Amino acid sequence: MHASDMTTGYEPLNTCKPVGPEIWVIDGPIVKFYGLPFPTRCTVVRLSGGGLWVHSPTALTDGLRAELAELGPVEHLIAPNWIHYVSVGEWQQAYPEALAWAAPGVAERAAKYGVELRFDHDLGRQAEAPWAGQIRQRLITGSKLHSEAVFFHRPSRTLILTDLIENFEAKWLPWWMRPLARLGGVLAPKGGMPRDMRASFAGRREALRAQIEELLGWGPERVIFAHGRWFERDGAARMRAAYRWLLE
User: Which CATH superfamily, name and number, covers 3-247?
Assistant: First the structure.
């Protein structure tokens, strides 16, 4: 069975699903990462000027393009970490006027694997001018492996992560992946930061704790992330539970 033929559990795919005021998620198809099937997710925010801000773009279909055209013009494409950039090129071809923004390490990894992408701007530690006042922004740093740009959509009180939490539901995983997800600390309902990522913060746990506490201080009601069942309510409490290993 090909990855694209697998059920994600989050159907319908490739369509905009309302989350809150001016924010939608798009559940994308399964992709393979180191041989493991991962469901994918994109987040779309409509900024005050009417343009669309697209976080971690997934597969782009004709039907999805039609839906987006009704919401507004696609103006910003966000590659939030060193893994989530693969579909940016496809979106750039469809929306050549959109600006592409890259987190640290994205451009280097794309070049390493021969992926030709144009990035217009780097993502920094503070919200960029086009969305300042609407979307908060931080870089999670301190890992030897992983750096990620995180965002907080103020109107809907939604925290937008990518891989800092994963929450795979066993019923949608192949049987052989379920024990791996449990060992990796990413099996729902007790998903969290993958254990290999935790290890990459060795010697920097205090710095990571301070960064996670800052995100919790924003008071998220929802927490969206790319892989698995995201937190549709009680966001701060559920995120605190996911990071109990770090915070307690």
Answer: Ribonuclease Z/Hydroxyacylglutathione hydrolase-like (3.60.15.10)
